[in-house]
Design goal:
144 residues; alpha+beta; binds zinc ion
Length: 144
């Protein structure tokens, strides 16, 4: 499973781009690196704030946006109400739990899923990303 680059690597990359690396940003790098996949900005903020109470949500957003612009993470909207940040920037599918909002990656091929070439849309497919909605393993075991 791909993870975000190490805090040391990200620090070097930010500096190479002429971006300032503050202790706050380094705390965000650490939180991302340790994170399970697909955190929201709020999740990252909560994690970092426990160690660094003065950090602002704005700083978290800025850093996440910079990382997205650098192609280190992808920002994805999976219909859960908030943008999720994904360390896997290659096309893949997602399993979204309707009950707890958990998001898992799914790497699988669906060869039949495509826009027919003679389709009237004349659409050239570059990537296919499918969102499956349902209940995750944990939620499926809870009584409704
Ligand atoms: Zn769930
Ligand atoms: Zn993903």
């Amino acid at each position: 499973m791909p993870t975000v680059r190490s805090p040391t690597e990200l620090t070097a990359m930010f500096r190479a781009q002429g971006l300032k690396v503050t202790p706050q940003r380094q705390a965000i790098f650490r939180a991302l690196h340790a994170s399970s996949v697909h955190p929201t900005a709020d999740t990252v903020y909560d994690t970092v704030r426990s160690a660094m109470p003065t950090i602002s949500l704005r700083t978290v957003y800025q850093t996440l946006n910079d990382l997205t612009a650098m192609g280190e993470i992808a920002s994805v909207d999976l219909g859960t109400g908030s943008t999720r940040f994904d360390p896997d920037t290659a096309p893949h599918h997602h399993l979204v739990c309707n009950d707890c909002g958990r998001i898992d990656d799914l790497h699988a091929d669906f060869p039949g899923v495509t826009v027919p070439v003679d389709d009237e849309h004349g659409f050239e497919v570059a990537a296919t990303e499918i969102v499956f909605r349902g209940r995750c393993r944990v939620c499926a075991q809870l009584p409704r």
